[in-house]
Amino acid sequence: MSKKDADSTARIRQYLEHQNRPVEHQNRPYSVNDIFMNLHKDIGKTAVQKCLDQLVADGCVKEKVYGKQKVYVFDQSQFPPLDETQLKEMDRKITDLNETIKQKERICGETEARLRSLNSSLTTEEAVKKLQDLEEEVSRLQKKLADLQENQVLISKEEKDQINSENEKMVKMWRKRRRMAMDILDAILEGYPKKKKDLFDDIGIETDEDVGVKLPKA
Predict the structure, then answer these.
(1) For 6-39, how does the pLDDT look when each residue is reduced to its tens digit (9 = 90+)?
(2) Residues with Cβ < 8 Å from 127, sequence gap 6 or more?
(3) pTM of the prediction?
(4) CB of 31 within 8 A of CB of 71?
(5) Which residue in 58, 150, 166, 184 has a CA-CA distance of 20 to 30 Å to 34?
(6) 195 phi and psi angles, rounded to 5 deg
(7) What is the DSSP letter of 30?
């Protein structure tokens, strides 16, 4: 055997021994192509096959045939047997890794739930637009209510009852939409770094109190 072949054989032997130790690494069979690629193509495929044949002949590597595919694994009998301490350490590592996986899965689940919640919420732009629409509707209802209150024309009882009923309906709608507007603002404030008054100033919101309007009592 030439020095080059001997060096290649020693390198492949060292690689398989390192990868197939019981305690560490992958400890699995390797094909000729696996070894060729994992050694960065430093040794040609033909030379890899030749070295493996020599290692099998020497008895330090086992060859297994699956159909047309051959795989190779370092002979486990050449490693010293694992003692009880090593086995317990391996069990401990497995337990720790399983616990880490569970924690990562829990965090992942919480993150996905939070993401779904955020995706279903209004964006800041949508919330501001909704608030502006509600403010316009409130102003319209306020004007209508003021016009009704200032009307001095004598009306029938039926007309008065109808107006009062409409007024109560509008006030309920006012109260409901005012609450909706405040809920939207509160949702925005959860991620807003300033106070509520600063938010109102930043997006140009006027409250009932700002315009001197008081919501009628229920």
Answers:
(1) 999 999 999 998 887 755 556 688 999 999 999 9
(2) 184, 185, 187, 188
(3) 0.39
(4) yes
(5) 58
(6) -80, 170
(7) B
